[in-house]
Structures are given as C-alpha cells and as structure tokens.
Here is the input.
Amino acid sequence: MISHPVICAFRNSVRCWRHRAVLKVAVEASDISGWRWFSTPIRGGTSGMEEILARVVAPLPTYETRDKSPPPPESNSFEFIYYYRGLDKEDKLHFMTKLSQDFGVEHKSVSELAVKLLDTQQRDLATILQVEDRLRYSLTPRYKQLLSHISRVEGGVKFLVDLRADVLEIITSKASESSHIRDLNSTLKSLLSEWFSVGLLRLERITWQSPCEILQKISQYEAVHPVRNWTDLKRRVGPYRRCYAFTHAAMPGEPLVVLHVALTEDISDNIQSIVREFATLDSEEDVNKVNSAIFYSISSTQAGLQGVELGNYLIKRVVRELQSEFPHMAQFSSLSPIPGFTSWLQGLLSQYRKEGRGSDLLSEQEWKEVEQATDSAPGTPAADSLRKLISSGDWMRSERLSIVLEPVLMRFCAWYLYGEKRRGCALNPVANFHLQNGATMWRLNWCPNFKRTANCEKEIRTTQLSVWSAG
Ligand code: 0OR
Here is the structure.
C-alpha cells in the first residue's frame, strides 16, 4: 500500500508537471497562430489562479465607453481555456469559486445606482430610463465579457457548454453552495440559451447513410432504450423509423439532442413492438400504413445545455417535418416510461401505514384480494405485504398477482401522474416534460415492456405513459 504522504507528494508533482504541460501547449498554440500571447509562466496553486484571472478577465469598460472599447485580445480566451482544461476536479472548483466571487458584479456601484434610481423618480422619463440602463449595465458580472469572447474563438462554445456542465455538477453534488457559483450558472445559462436559440439550430435527419461518427454518437448517447449493436441501430434509422437531431454550427459533428420516432398504423401500446420487433431491414415503407408517429425516445447529449429546452423545440420541429412528409398524419404520441413511480408508491404506503391509515388506500374487496393473493400471515398488515410485493417485483411473475394488482396500480399511477405536483407542475419529470411541451395525457399502458419477455424485471416495474399531442 502507498502511504498517504507518498500519495500527496505524487499528486503535487503531477500538478507541477501538469502546469508546465499546460504552459507548453499554450505556447505551442501561440506559435501556431504566429504571435506570442503567453509571456508570463503560470505558477501553480492559489496564487497562480489569481495571477491568471487578473490577467485574462479584463475589467468591464465604463458605461460611457462600453460600445467603443476594443475587445480584449483573443489570447485571454485561449489562456483561460488551456489553463482550465489542465486543472483537476478539485482545482476547477477552486478556480470557478475565485472567478465567480472576485470577478463578478461590482456590488458597490449597483447599490449606488439603485439609490440614484430612487432619487430620480420625480425626474423626467428620459433621466429615469438612463439611470435604469446604467443600473442594468452595472449588473453585468465582469467575467461575462470573457465568456462572450471565449464563444468567438474556435472550440470556445463547446468549452463553455462543458464548463456549464462542470458548474451544474458542482451545484447538484453540493460540492459548493456558494451563491456566486449559482450566479455563474445563471449567466452561462442565459448566454447559452441565446446562442442555442431555435433559429440557430439545424435539424438533421440521421439515416444509415449518415457519417459513421454521427451514427456512433447516436448509439452512444441513447439514454432511454440502449442500442444493442449495429443491426439494432440500422433498424432505428431504417424503414418505418425516423431519427432526427439538432446540430449547431459552433459544434460541428455533435448531435445536441436526438429524437427517435416509429411510424405506425396505430398508437403503440408497448415498446417491444418498436425496439425489438421490426419489419425486415430492407422493406419498403408503405405510406398507407403510416398514420401515427410515436416518439419513443429522446436524449439530450450535452449536460451543459440543461434547461435550454432543446428537447421541447426538437419535438415541435419534428412534428412539422413529419406533417410535411405525411400530410394525412394526425396522431403524434410519445411512449414514455414512468421513472420514480415505484419509489413514490412505496413512500405513500409507508406514510399511510405510519399514520394508521393503510386501509384507506384500497377498497375492502381489494385488500381481501391482496391478502389472499399474497398468502399474508394472519395479523400482517396488508399494506406491508403490498409494499414488499412492489419492491421485490415478484408479482410480475405471478399471473394471479398481476390480475389483482392491475386495477390498483393503474389507479395509483393515474393519480401519481395527474395529482402529484411539485411547484404546480407534474412531479414525474417525464410527464412534466411532455405536458409542458403542450401534450395531453392520453393513455396508461399496462406492463408495456413485459409483452413477450419474461426476464426484464427491472424494466417492467413501471407502466408507460402515452401522451398524445395533436399536431
Ligand atoms: O435539458 P432539459 O431537461 O431542461 O430540457 P430539454 O428539453 O433540453 O431535454 C429534455 C430531455 C428529456 C431530452 C432530457 O432531459 C434528457 O435527455 N433526459 C434523459 C433521457 C429521457 O428521460 N428521455
């Protein structure tokens, strides 16, 4: 075993080596561009970070000169990118904290302008508007200018998308609860939302003829129904299927969000018929057999674009695309899993049991049937047996139990989707995503993953939700 001090020494030496390597890459890059922009060597640790931030995060121009100041040199952006990429996770957190804390909003001038704005309330409108504009400008964090400039250098936009992914990770993992980090996240999100607005996105249909690199990414990014092999992938982009992605000029070759569609006669009630059972790979599509579009999988590929709503825009754009290809098509539906239903139900059963209200959840007749079907020992509260049954998933192997539980679970599931809210929206994230996009909850399908397969217990714990949005 390596002792702790040895590990520390090793880490430190790696850091020194890494900073030298960063410097080398940066210098090489500067030589390629034909000019040197990296004159001072970077020191490691906190002082190195402070030094680099002071150099590359230029002060905001004054309000009067804001439209006239020349942009800072591109080298500032490159230096920031290379430095950041060379840091480890812990140092990235440290660096982001420094950036957001020491190079954010100038609080003193904000409060002075806020006071000034209050003082001008009796003055004419033009004066008020001018003070408001100054106040708005003063609310710009100093680092925002650097972020905007980074987006203009090659690879800069992708760097910022990845940077936001790191910031989100810091926030969700609670590695830092700093409000400066939250501010940095908001600034990045609003910049990315502008740059990735729907007019700047390109819709691409992915087919078997698409570049291999793209097909590989489509397979790798699939988050809902994993792609098993190349044949599986070929089918997902073959006849009676459509696969679309949004791409962006600043991130060439990178599908940002991917939507898979099945073209069917009716709204499918199970996923097996879509991802497992296919017409032959070479069959020709018969337009007369295509009445419905089933959106059976959507995956966003860039964690840093969370909240930019690319999935929402993609679904709407694809509906228009399909309507122009199949003018008679009138049914557009998702076929979605309902993650979280089982754990919600277990929580509900435990809570009712604790409160001594277990019996309220089912009718007397249903409890009797559960007791009989589970062969519960006399005196065992039926709510406990039901909770155990649901957590083990054993009921799926028993026809008798499935018959008893179907009406009960379907009723709970309908309530879970329809009645359980968080901040006024559906608690279930998948339902919320579709409902927010303008869809309507249409049908709950019982055991849609179960059809013709007996060995996929994990998947069949949920039922599925079909959401039908009419055009
Ligand atoms: O990023 P957001 O979740 O805020 O919104 P988007 O519209 O950009 O993306 C929505 C998706 C459902 C595509 C996204 O959240 C995702 O990829 N989720 C995991 C896969 C899934 O549940 N479909």
Q: What stands out?
A: The two ends are 63 Å apart (CA to CA). The longest helix spans residues 4-33. Residues 341-469 form one domain.
